[in-house]
């Protein structure tokens, strides 16, 4: 029989009785063990959290954060678990006492030993059950969306302490307390509708009056008491920033909340859940990284108090959009937190763990060189802290902005623009270019001038330069202070350094000049590039490693402002790097491409239209530009300016340089000679054509040459009404169904973008291929005549001809070029090859001397089917061509001479002649007869001899001109005298077509003596400045505009 418990537990009993007493302690925890199992039993009575059987429907203003409630029975279980843990600790101490006393193993009764062994198993099982209880608790809590302890509540105060709402509403101070509590709760849950209702109630209840001072007075900045304690204001602005709720922040700001106020956000919580984890953490691992929990929400000690701004809260949780929103409202990125712990007195930058957040802070003035607590607990920069956290992404971002390790007080003073402290160091003869403490060299080898340039400390920069600091001192990356000032857009510092002799052409270890560094920075201004280029920097300098220019770098980094600034200072948009890529090829951003092309004057789409439909053309242009497609729309009516050469040249240039021509098909489009010429020129230069139909126009023969029916996008469904402009009846306007217009425009936009991308890819591939060929030439020196004449392209164009090969007996033509006109030869070669004609030409072979080359050429000419020779001023003086031509003639080969005319008619003439056939004549009269026959054959299509009664047989004195014109016309009276030849040479408009019309004269032979009646002919001129008055009968001349 056991003694009384008092004797057993005071160690007055025997060894067996002590073992039984120890085991009894464990067995007596059975009720607690059973109770901890009940929350997981599935019985509704013991459920851990309250159920929301009828959840409210979600609305637009609802957030996704909810604060779940633990039931009272579950809170009781948490207390039981804490008591069980404490009880287990007592059992362990009791066992240890018995163990060291030596009476544990002296009991020889088997029943007692078995009894004690089972109790040990139960003791271990209790800890296992506590682990399962904790895991079950965390699993269900997170299943419901409560990831932190603060996301749930026991709601004890509501059951025990909170009085009735009606009683509170009668007293302003208690009403204010209710408003603050509910506003805080609604903000945590992201319930905007509830927030608005609470704020509206506060305003209706007079709480926003000057006397009550809601919200400014109610949420005044918190302060530290005795340097250790502070009471949290539970500011909803901090909560909204912490959760990144932009709409809540906007609502609170509009209601007068201070978005810069400091508050105690981390608080010591007192709840059964916190009490449970306070003890359970020693035995049970919390889920999450490093034991879980949130340092931002729960303070470790009541003596550790930190006051922060909403920006600190947003940065700590990586809420990028909230950070941007706060910074855009003028919140300072340099505000230090106030804390009872010196190590917690840091700016927001020290809390950032995401490079994008770091970038936003630095853009808005955060100091990457700040040392918050120099000489005490926190003598670290943000860069050092990032390395300590192994956050290399943040560290890299900081280094790009000039971040450095803490060096000396001299450096820190220079970075803070502290002129007085810097003067003190200079008076003490401190080395103005010191690199570290005690003679040590810092990690990045930076001087105080580097730190001042990075921080934009102009006053200190000027002071250090005056004291003899070296403006060209290069750090570990080879960068001078000018590099960093340009990189960080410190215009005044850049100007000051240049005046002090800083070298604008100095390159760092990556061959980057200061101007290139400025291009890699974010939103560098035009002024920075202007100052650097004025000092001698090359705006089109290319990196020797890859050939990139500053514009390549800016575009690749998507720095729109920097790219436009470079263009404004002379950046070359067509400059290619080693890979053959232009700056335009270095980005896929349609918006950036649009802005750059617009700034550079490049247009992707040329709109061809009749000026009677200018309103529709402008609408299409606006829609395209809204979709980031650059367009060119000629708003100048040619009928009003006479179609001058400048206008024609601009039209031709627009068509030639465009990626696609957009044709607006209307009823009068095919009747416009100018529109048809635009399509003809587009087809001639290879610019794709897309068409829009608006009036159900049928495609006639004139348009079928240029357009494909499948390329026409019908806009008729989008047009509800056609009308004429009230002030100008010649202008046609439409009423639109905007929904259908957008639908049809999307079809058009897809086609336009496809053509733009095809053109861009084609240009890019062409440039890449050209660049590779050029790079190959630089690496190969043949030492033959081709190397000295620049004909290396022929060696790559023509394949090596082997007379002994099996395919050498097939038909082929030989092209003699004399190493001239590489571009034309390549184009001709491609056309012949595409037509199935095998073509060989004279080429250089590595390691082959000139005599072997001549021998191979003669062998090829002997076996060729035809001999082609290019005749030009350059080839006629070339020995190779003369010898090859003589050899081909001697061997009886069929010779096809190709006369190459190097005349450049200009874009305006190309536009005018786009729809006309060209007739070629040699200046020395060679082949004149065949050329003249071809010309006469062309004339016969319009100049047909008909019956004189129809008035179309014109004598030699009749001058012919086109009646189809919109330009100035002159009407002459033709005298019937014999001296009509003296009136002047016949004037024929380019591409003129003779048709019968009321404007074209007829001649008659019915007059006596063969004299004709006074008749008129219409002549067209581009201008009247070159007409000799002596040749005109001005009395019978009529000017028609």
TrEMBL record:
ANK repeats lie at residues 232-264, 306-338, 444-476, 477-509, 546-578. SMART domains: ANK, TIR. GO terms for molecular function: ubiquitin-protein transferase activity. Gene3D superfamilies: Ankyrin repeat-containing domain, Toll/interleukin-1 receptor homology (TIR) domain. Residues 994-1018 are annotated as: Disordered. It comes from the Eukaryota. Residues 1000-1018 have a biased composition (Polar residues). InterPro entries: Ankyrin_rpt (IPR002110), Ankyrin_rpt-contain_sf (IPR036770), TIR_dom (IPR000157), Toll_tir_struct_dom_sf (IPR035897). Pfam families: Ank (PF00023), Ank_2 (PF12796), TIR_2 (PF13676). The chain crosses the membrane at residues 20-41, 76-100, 112-134. PROSITE patterns: ANK_REP_REGION, ANK_REPEAT, TIR. This is Transient receptor potential Ca2 channel (TRP-CC) family protein. It comes from Phytophthora palmivora. The lineage of its organism: Eukaryota, Sar, Stramenopiles, Oomycota, Peronosporomycetes.
């Amino acid at each position: 029989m056991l003694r009384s418990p008092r004797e057993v537990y005071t160690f007055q009993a025997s060894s067996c009785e002590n073992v039984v007493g120890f085991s009894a302690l464990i067995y007596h925890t059975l009720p607690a063990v059973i109770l901890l199992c009940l929350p997981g039993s599935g019985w509704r009575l013991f459920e851990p959290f309250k159920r929301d059987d009828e959840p409210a429907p979600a609305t637009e203003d609802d957030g996704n954060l909810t604060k779940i409630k633990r039931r009272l029975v579950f809170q009781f279980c948490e207390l039981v678990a804490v008591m069980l843990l404490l009880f287990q600790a007592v059992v362990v101490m009791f066992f240890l006492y018995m163990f060291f006393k030596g009476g544990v193993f002296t009991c020889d009764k088997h029943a007692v030993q078995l009894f004690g062994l089972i109790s040990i198993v139960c003791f271990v099982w209790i800890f296992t059950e506590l682990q399962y209880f904790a895991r079950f608790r965390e699993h269900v809590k997170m299943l419901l969306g409560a990831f932190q302890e603060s996301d749930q509540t026991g709601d004890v105060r509501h059951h025990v302490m909170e009085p009735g709402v009606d009683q509170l509403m009668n007293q302003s101070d208690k009403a204010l307390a209710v408003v603050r509590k509910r506003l805080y709760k609604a903000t945590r849950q992201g319930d905007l509708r509830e927030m608005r209702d609470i704020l509206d109630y506060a305003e209706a209840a007079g709480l926003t009056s000057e006397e009550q001072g809601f919200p400014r007075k109610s949420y005044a900045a918190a302060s530290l008491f005795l340097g250790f304690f502070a009471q949290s204001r539970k500011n909803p602005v901090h909560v909204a920033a912490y959760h990144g709720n932009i709409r809540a922040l906007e609502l609170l700001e509009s209601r007068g909340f201070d978005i810069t106020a400091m508050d105690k956000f981390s608080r010591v919580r007192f709840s059964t859940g916190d009490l449970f984890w306070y003890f359970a953490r020693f035995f049970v691992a919390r889920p999450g990284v490093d034991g879980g929990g949130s340092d931002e929400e729960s303070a470790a000690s009541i003596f550790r108090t930190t006051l922060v701004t909403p920006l600190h809260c947003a940065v700590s949780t990586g809420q990028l959009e909230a950070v941007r929103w706060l910074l855009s409202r003028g919140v300072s990125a340099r505000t230090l937190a106030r804390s009872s712990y010196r190590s917690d007195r840091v700016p927001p930058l020290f809390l950032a763990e995401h490079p994008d957040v770091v970038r936003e802070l630095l853009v808005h003035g955060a100091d990457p060189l700040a040392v918050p607590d120099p000489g005490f607990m926190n003598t670290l920069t943000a860069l050092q802290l990032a390395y300590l956290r192994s956050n290399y992404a943040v560290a890299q971002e900081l280094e790009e902005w000039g971040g450095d390790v803490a060096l000396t007080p001299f450096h820190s003073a220079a970075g803070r623009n502290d002129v007085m402290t810097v003067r003190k160091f200079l008076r003490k003869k401190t080395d103005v270019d010191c690199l570290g403490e005690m003679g040590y060299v810092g990690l990045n080898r930076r001087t105080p001038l580097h730190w001042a340039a990075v921080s934009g400390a102009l006053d200190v920069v000027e002071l250090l330069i005056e004291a003899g600091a070296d403006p060209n001192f290069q750090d570990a990356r080879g960068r001078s202070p000018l590099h960093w000032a340009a990189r960080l857009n410190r215009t005044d510092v850049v100007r000051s350094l240049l005046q002090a002799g800083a070298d604008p052409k100095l390159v760092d270890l990556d061959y980057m000049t200061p101007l290139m560094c400025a291009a890699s920075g974010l939103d560098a201004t035009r002024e920075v590039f202007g100052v650097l280029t004025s000092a001698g920097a090359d705006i089109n300098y290319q990196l020797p490693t890859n050939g990139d220019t500053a514009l390549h770098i800016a575009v690749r980094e998507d720095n729109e402002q920097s790219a436009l600034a470079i263009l404004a200072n002379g950046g070359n948009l067509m400059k290619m790097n080693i890979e053959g890529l232009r700056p335009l090829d270095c980005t896929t951003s349609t918006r950036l491409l649009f802005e750059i092309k617009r700034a550079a004057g490049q247009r992707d789409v040329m709109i061809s239209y009749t000026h009677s439909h200018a309103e529709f053309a402008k609408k299409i242009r606006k829609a395209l530009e809204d979709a980031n497609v650059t367009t060119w729309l000629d708003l100048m009516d040619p009928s009003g300016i006479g179609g001058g050469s400048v206008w024609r040249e601009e039209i031709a240039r627009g068509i030639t340089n465009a990626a696609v021509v957009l044709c607006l098909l209307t009823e009068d489009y095919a009747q416009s000679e100018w529109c048809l010429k635009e399509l003809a020129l587009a087809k001639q230069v290879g610019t794709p054509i897309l068409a829009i139909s608006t009036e159900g126009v049928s495609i006639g023969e004139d348009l079928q040459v240029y357009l494909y029916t499948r390329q026409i996008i019908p806009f008729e469904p989008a047009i509800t009404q056609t009308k004429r402009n009230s002030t100008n009846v010649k202008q046609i306007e439409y009423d639109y169904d905007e929904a259908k217009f957008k639908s049809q425009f999307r079809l058009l936009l897809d086609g336009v973008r496809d053509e733009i991308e095809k053109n861009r890819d084609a240009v890019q591939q062409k440039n890449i291929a050209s660049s590779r060929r050029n790079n190959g030439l630089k690496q190969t020196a043949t030492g033959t005549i081709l190397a000295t004449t620049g004909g290396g392209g022929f060696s790559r164009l023509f394949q090596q001809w082997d007379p002994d090969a099996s395919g050498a007996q097939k038909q082929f033509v030989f092209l003699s070029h004399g190493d001239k006109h590489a571009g034309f030869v390549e184009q001709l070669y491609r056309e012949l090859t595409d037509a199935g004609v095998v073509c060989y030409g004279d080429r250089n072979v590595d390691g082959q001397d000139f005599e072997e080359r001549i021998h191979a050429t003669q062998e090829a000419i002997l076996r060729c089917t035809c001999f082609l020779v290019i005749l030009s001023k350059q080839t006629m003086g070339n020995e190779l061509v003369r010898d090859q031509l003589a050899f081909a003639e001697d061997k009886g080969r069929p010779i096809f001479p190709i006369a190459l005319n190097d005349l450049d008619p200009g874009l305006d003439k190309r536009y005018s002649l786009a729809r006309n056939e060209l007739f070629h004549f040699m200046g020395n009269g060679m082949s004149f007869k065949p050329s003249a026959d071809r010309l006469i054959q062309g004339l016969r299509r319009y100049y047909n001899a008909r019956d004189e009664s129809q008035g179309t047989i014109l004598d030699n004195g009749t001058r012919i001109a086109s009646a189809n014109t919109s330009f100035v016309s002159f009407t002459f009276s033709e005298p019937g005298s014999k001296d009509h030849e003296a009136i002047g040479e016949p004037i024929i408009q380019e591409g003129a077509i003779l048709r019968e019309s009321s404007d074209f004269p007829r001649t008659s032979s019915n007059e006596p003596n063969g004299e004709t009646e006074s008749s008129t002919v219409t002549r067209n001129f581009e201008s009247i400045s070159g007409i000799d008055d002596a040749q005109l009968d001005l009395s019978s001349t009529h000017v028609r505009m």
